[in-house]
Amino acid sequence: MMKIPAFLILVCGLAPLLAVGGNLPDGPYVSTSAAAVHRADPDYAVIDLGFRTVQTSAEAAREQTNAAQKSLVSMLSGYEDALRATRLESLQFGREYEYDRQQQKRVEAGYFGQFGFRIEVSDLERVSKLHFELAATDWNSLGEPRFEVADTDAARDAAREKALARATAQARALARAQGGRLGEAWGIIFEPMHELAGRMAGAQAGQMQRFSAGVGAADAEFAIPMAPRPVEFEARVGVVFRLEADPE
Fold this sequence. Notes:
Blueprint: E1 9-12, H1 15-19, E2 29-40, E3 44-55, H2 58-76, E4 83-100, E5 105-121, H3 127-135, E6 141-142, E7 146-148, H4 152-177, E8 180-191, E9 207-208, E10 211-213, E11 226-228, E12 231-245
Parallel strand pairs: 1-2
Antiparallel strand pairs: 2-12, 3-5, 3-6, 3-7, 4-5, 8-12, 9-12, 10-11
């Protein structure tokens, strides 16, 4: 039979969460938190690219930028059935400046034109070939493929459910170790994940990118292309239960 002291508190890594959770339940309680990862197969890949040119005239900058866009549209026409969406993210023109060391000030250096473009590829088997073709074009920047899932809310919910189940199991084990049992749930606290070490640029909070190396024909795509892997969603959940004596 369990004898519960007046204010028995069993805590397992939840102190920071309880600090923002408000008043605790009257009487003994058990609290804990746990993290879990849900892995979801990717639905599509994202490739970001950027173009920038500097010319002696505004007209030349405009023409070079437009020519680059036409070249991109022509290339993507061969992948129309493989694309999920495309979007022009930015389009800018203006005067270009550079720093003159002799004059010790910024001076005009011409006119620039630039744009950013996002490509979403639903046919994952063709991602590597498209990336290979894009790399042969004169872009200022070409990102590596990022793999995404269409329903991120469902994936995050699955991660939270796994974390909640793990935290509840830990709380039950702590109560059992004290000869007691869990009472009614007093509260559930969800802790959003912050920046994750090694997270790829552009990934959403709580979402990690993982890649694996595949082998492809060298004349059609990179010899070691980026191959899709499950996208990982991580969540942490804290739980607080009333602690009761086990009648047995």
